[in-house]
Specification:
Largest sheet: 5 strands, antiparallel
Order of helices and strands: EHHEEEEH
Strand content: 35-45%
Number of domains: 1
CATH topology: Alpha-D-Glucose-1,6-Bisphosphate, Chain A, domain 4
Structural class: alpha+beta
């Protein structure tokens, strides 16, 4: 059942303060829109450094968003480690990645368009 394993790693630079990016993780409507296929439970709130969740649903395992300050912004690292859930489509990892990339780039566009 090796094809059930999911490992996703993504990095996106956003020219904004880490605490501004972190505030988005606290917006339940935003995160629910990105991850409607997951039930999340916070396992570690790292403050301005990000958050870690245990997840169930189409992916069973753990997920993290780590915020790393870099120059005049932050590198947003996104990790998912787990297995495909019992009723998940075979391409759940691809769908998750595309949904995340769309959301994080919309966030990037919005925050970088905001003056200083």
């Amino acid at each position: 059942m090796r094809d059930r394993r999911i490992d996703i790693i993504d990095e996106t630079f956003i020219r904004a303060a880490p605490q501004v990016v972190r505030a988005s993780l606290d917006e339940e409507a935003w995160t629910a829109q990105i991850w409607p296929h997951l039930t999340r439970s916070v396992t570690r709130d790292r403050g301005v450094k990000g958050m870690r969740w245990s997840v169930t649903g189409q992916v069973v395992g753990e997920m993290e968003v780590w915020l790393e300050p870099f120059r005049d912004g932050v590198v947003v690292h996104h990790y998912v480690r787990g297995t495909r859930g019992p009723r998940a489509p075979r391409d759940v990892a691809t769908r998750h990645t595309l949904r995340w990339k769309r959301a994080v780039h919309e966030l990037k566009d919005r925050l970088e368009a905001t003056p200083g």
